[in-house]
Amino acid sequence: MCGIVGYLGPKEPKNIIIEGLKKLEYRGYDSAGIAVIHDGKTKRVRAQGKLKNLEEKLISESFNGHLGIGHTRWATHGAPNERNAHPHQAGEISLVHNGIIENYLEIKAELIKKGTEIKSDTDSELVAHLIWEDIQKTQNLLQSVKNTLGKIVGAFSILVMWEKSPNELIAFKDGPPLIVGIGEKEHFVVSDVQAAIKYTKRFVYLNDREIVHIQGTDVKFMNAKGEPIKKDIVTVDWSEDQVEKAGFKHFMLKEIYEQPRAVAQAIAPYIDTDTHSILLKNIGYEMTDLYKKIDRVFFIACGTSYYAAMVGKYLIEQIAKVPVETDIASEFRYRKPVMPANTLVITISQSGETADTLAAIRLAKECGAQTLSITNVAQSSIDREATGHMYMNTGVEVGVASTKAFTSTLSLLNILAVQIAKVRGKISVADEKQIVQSLLAVPSQMETVLSYDKYFKEAAAKLAEFKGFLYLGRGVSFPIALEGALKLKELAYMHAEGYAAGEMKHGPLALIDKDMAIVVVAPSDDLIDKTISNLQEAKARGGKIISIGTGENEGLKSMSEFYLPLPAAFWTTNPLVAVVPLQLMSYHLADHLKYDVDQPRNLAKSVTVE
Ligand code: F6R
What we know:
Distance between the termini: 10 Å
Oligomer: single chain
Shape: globular
Number of domains: 3
CATH topology of the largest domain: Glutamine Phosphoribosylpyrophosphate, subunit 1, domain 1
Strand order of the largest sheet: 3-2-4-1-10-9-11-14
Bound molecules: fructose -6-phosphate
């Protein structure tokens, strides 16, 4: 993953790069570094660990140049320490890199044979050596970058500067995102627009195998062979304060609280609030026609987005009566999937950059499928691959653990299920109205359950005594159980498993004792009685139950150590509200245990490597 920031312009680059890296720290936080031209020489400062360590080292440093590059790392090749931190240097070349060089062993062997001294364990440093080797012959940075590209295999994006040419910055993208910010007589090259949004709202998204060559105030785009290409400038309307904590202790807590507004924003373009119906007009003719013809839907995603996809399966099958399969992207791309004619592949990705999901949508297209992307980032790589588009519209999600993007996606999946059903004539006006009314009620229902914030803050110490957590649910609540368990694992580093409640007796029941908490998502739907019988089995074996049910469900309440009532809702929207207490529970457990909530260990938000 890793975050990249480059700057060429009239200002002092150090602070611009550090501020930019702060916005990108969600992409990786093992180590960080910056290189700036100063008095005609490259000055490089790197530090292991979080960005604040680099900042401390930089306090006494000043730079007088106008060109600089910076990087925040998520280690792939080589331990997360200072010598492996970027920028890497070879001679007069400095380089930052995001991605993986697949043929690095051959390159390394070749370089060692020639007597090159390699100072890190990374694949990235090798690229700097290749460029340095070449530039000593060409004396031309662009030419040497192009010559080097032919020698590297993998998915990689690089940003390069040459000490001898302090007015020149070159980037190449093949895989991980790179975006060029176009400012007033200044340019930025960043992994995510957040890193430069303070200075410009005008961006150019590089496609794979494209180069940007910035020289002074001039910027040129070209393909890997150096042939000029025309690129569109996209105006991004995110504001800088969307990436601030706004008084909350953590971004994650702020984003949990933003969910009522996020859901309202996500559904607004699709709903006629006078008739309580779902609009078809913004699907586009192509998709309307497609929804009529499809025989099968495949959902493909990773992590939390995959759990949203699982909810999507229940919604589309039950509302639109179309068979649905769900796939984890990293499995889909290697299982040689059979795609019958008239298959619609729907990818879900908050970032729009997840490497496996991107590869999966490309594979689906090769197999002849039609594609729809649900993402939070318009113009992201996955969005650009798809024919149809739906946007979460939640604004930036900074916390590494996904919250508001998940619930916004669930609201879009309600809309999508109805749209497909409508086009195929499978839904009555009354049923549509019921789904719309339930969706419109979600923001205020979420406000009600946000009051569990205080409750979990107080309960965190007691909950932290449990040795393990088993999350259970049935139907649409099963993916919510999986999502609850994932949140607890990634934030509080506690052992948690999500299970379909009916599967308990096929194995997990053996885990249950007094130290095991059973978190059950059991809103009052058709399956509630079955879930309660499963709980009896767990309770009889000493398990301690934390349950989330609808209203004052006395049966559930009497079995539970902790009972959390939800407002009554239709089955289609229960997951949106039921997940909120689970997010709050994980948040408070992690905070109580003094873990880094926004940047859990070993994780990164945008997983742009396989
Ligand atoms: C968990 C989480 C991850 C992401 C996953 C996919 O809280 O955030 O599991 O959901 O890495 O990311 P996107 O949605 O960007 O493709």
